[in-house]
Amino acid sequence: MKLLIARFIREEDGSTALEYGLIAAGLSIAIVTVLAQVATTFSRLKATAAIAGQ
Fold it and tell me: DSSP labels for 1-54?
């Protein structure tokens, strides 16, 4: 049993895919956050321009 656990701990084949998945998830969160902030900024600029145009 100890041999199986030790072999499982040393196994690194699946870790690369997991690492790439975590990196992709982190980048996705960052991109969504930035796009949400850009959308908010454009909405505020549009509202300010509408008020200034009156």
Answer: -HHHHHHHHH--HHHHHHHHHHHHHHHHHHHHHHHHHHHHHHHHHHHHHHHHT-
User: With the C-alpha atoms ordered 33, 35, 36, 40, is the resulting torsion angle positive or negative?
Assistant: positive
Domain boundaries, the chain: 1-53
Report residue 22 as tokens. Answer: 């975590």
Tokens found for residue 11? 């196994």
Question: What distance in Å separates the CA atoms of residue 14 and residue 25, rounded to the nearest whole number?
Answer: 17
Instruction: Report residue 14's pLDDT band, with 50, 70 and 90 as the boundaries.
Output: low
